[in-house]
Design a protein that fits this description.
By secondary structure, this protein is of the alpha/beta class. The protein contains twelve helices and 15 strands. The chain has a six-stranded mixed β-sheet with strand order 9-8-10-11-12-15, with helices on one face. A five-stranded mixed β-sheet has the order 2-3-1-4-7, sandwiched between helices. A two-stranded antiparallel ribbon has the order 5-6. This is Quinate 5-dehydrogenase.
């Protein structure tokens, strides 16, 4: 049995363990949060290195993507380097493949995306999803400045988003990561603000902790497109009367794990380092695994947002 472990800077309240069988092989999948404690996370990686089949890096990305290149987040480097034997991935490969496929699945099987009003909380960490939504004709507001830097300026053009990303990312990746993204106990904090951007959207897409960061009490009629959600997150969305939850990763034992976990699982199946894998490799294994988005109706009937 193979063991996949996501080591995360996030809250330990979101920990989970599941056993699954894929392609005739058994896997134990775990998510272990360290409540924002970088030293504890590094110790955990060193302790498990060589004793698990693959690591997912959770609560922080290795890379953020602009239109021209990917940029390495400074604070992620020590985590990646702490794993000397076991491969460590952050989900970037799957975000560029699985999430594009998920958007295509939605457009072809659920509803047309053309003209749909989308709030994309952050596109630099989900460039594949953002580009796929744009290609399918969605009307997107990019919230990277709002949700990442707390600058209340929406970006309403994909071209402008790419220009801003290429300009800001070389500086952003050198900032302390906890200034960019909720870590530790901050993952449990919701500060209701920027409500008009949620209100004006039909679909709210992106990393769930970014969606949660400023989430209003009233989400009636909204479609949530994300990945890492716990059973508690789903119940919270239900209380806020969101209409539909779509996760790009499948549900295992009541939990949709992050792309870092799914990518670690794929690396362990293929027994290759992520740097050796191409988009075609990911596409082939995804075809074999047959992953499709998890779709959950949270309200029986869609209620138009007020």
């Amino acid at each position: 049995m193979k063991r996949i472990v996501s080591v995360s800077l996030g809250s330990s309240k979101r920990n989970h363990r599941a056993e699954v069988e894929l392609l005739g092989e058994r896997f134990v999948i775990e998510r272990i949060g360290t409540d924002g404690d970088m030293n504890r996370l590094l110790e955990l990686v060193k302790e498990l290195d060589g004793h698990v089949d693959a690591f997912g890096m959770g609560g922080i990305d290795i890379y953020l993507h602009g239109s021209k290149k990917r940029h390495i987040i400074k604070d992620a480097i020590p985590i990646k380097e702490a794993a000397k034997i076991t491969p460590m991935v952050d989900g970037s490969g799957l975000k560029n493949t699985l999430e594009r496929r998920a958007v295509k699945y939605i457009d072809e099987n659920l509803f047309p995306l053309k003209g749909k009003k989308v709030l994309m909380t952050s596109a630099v960490d989900r460039f594949g999803m953002a580009e796929a939504l744009h290609d399918d004709g969605a009307d997107i507001v990019f919230g990277d400045l709002i949700f990442g830097l707390n600058i209340p300026i929406p970006i309403k053009s994909f071209t402008l988003f790419k220009h801003i990303a290429d300009m800001f990312l070389p500086v952003v990746v050198r900032m302390p990561f906890d200034k960019l993204y909720p870590t530790g106990k901050n993952q449990d904090v919701i500060e209701t603000k920027h409500e008009r951007y949620y209100r004006d959207a039909e679909i709210i897409a992106g990393d769930y902790l970014f969606i949660k960061k400023y989430m209003p009490l009233d989400l009636r009629g909204k479609i949530i497109l994300t990945n890492t959600v716990t059973m508690e997150d789903v119940e919270d969305l239900r209380r806020r009367r969101a209409y539909m939850l779509i996760t790009t990763t499948p549900e295992f034992d009541g939990r949709s794990f992050g792309t870092n976990v799914m990518e670690a699982l794929i690396v362990s199946i293929l027994q290759k380092n992520a740097d050796e894998l191409t988009s075609k490799d990911y596409e082939k294994i995804l075809d074999r695994l047959g992953f499709i988005p998890r779709i959950e109706y949270l309200e029986r009937e869609k209620i138009q947002a007020l």
